[in-house]
Amino acid sequence: MDGHEAHIERTPTRPDLSPTPDVVERAKRLGLSTQRLSDTIERDAYTPALIGLISNVLVWGGSRVFRHIHGIGTNEWRIVSALGNWPGSTATELCEILGINKSIASKSINELLDRGLVAQLDGPKGSRHLYLTPSGIEVHDDFMPVAKRRAEILHESLSEEESALLDALLVRMLASAESMKRYEQTIVRTDPAKLRGDRRLTF
């Protein structure tokens, strides 16, 4: 790693909360599972779990910080940030850019409109285009140093080369989004009774 040494904490540190033998025995009498299952997810070797954990850290912490500064949450900040790059985007385009569903986008856009941070202009064929207002630009510019510093902290255990490689790999993983959607759509279109007990679900 070009002299860069990273420390990886494999086991979450927490007080010993293991159940006592009495609790285990009571669980057994109730027919509860007291042994580790044979096929389980190993958190530190399961990419969706790791990405989810990092996402939780970023979303929860970001909402707290952003609301403290300007009273808006992470979803609203993401829309403000996107409009900084793509002014005039429609709500549908923002959903595609940010990977969020329409209900979240609609709620966040309405909040930004109500706050006067975003303005909406009618376009051709019923399209509605969103732009940052002067107040929205101020919010964007206030948040930029925070957003950049949070990214630096996230990468502080990585070398510059590792950080660049990580970003490149994540961009490549985004290309799998459509495949993931197709797989999930196949599942939700299948009779649930046929799915239960099926240990393959590979489709």
Count of helical stretches = 9
Q: Any idea what the shape is?
A: extended
Give the overall average pLDDT.
Answer: 89
* Share in β-strands: under 5%
Terminal CA distance: 39 Å
C-alpha-based Rg, rounded: 23 Å
CATH third-level topology of the domain at 75-154 = Arc Repressor Mutant, subunit A
Q: How does the major sheet shape up?
A: 2 strands, antiparallel
**Number of distinct beta strands:** 2
Overview of the molecule:
Helix 2 (47-70) crosses helix 6. This protein has helices at residues 21-29, 47-70, 74-85, 91-98, 102-114, 134-154, 160-174, 177-188, 192-195, and strands at 118-122, 128-132. Among the domains are: 75-154, Arc Repressor Mutant, subunit A (Orthogonal Bundle), CATH 1.10.10; 157-193. The protein contains 9 helices and 2 strands. Residues 1-10 have low confidence and may be disordered. By secondary structure, the protein is mainly alpha-helical.
Summarize the structure.
This protein is mainly α and 203 residues long.
SSE blueprint:
Blueprint: H1 21-29, H2 47-70, H3 74-85, H4 91-98, H5 102-114, E1 118-122, E2 128-132, H6 134-154, H7 160-174, H8 177-188, H9 192-195
Antiparallel strand pairs: 1-2
Short descriptors:
203 residues, mainly alpha, Arc Repressor Mutant, subunit A, two-stranded antiparallel ribbon, 9 helices, 58% helix, disordered N terminus
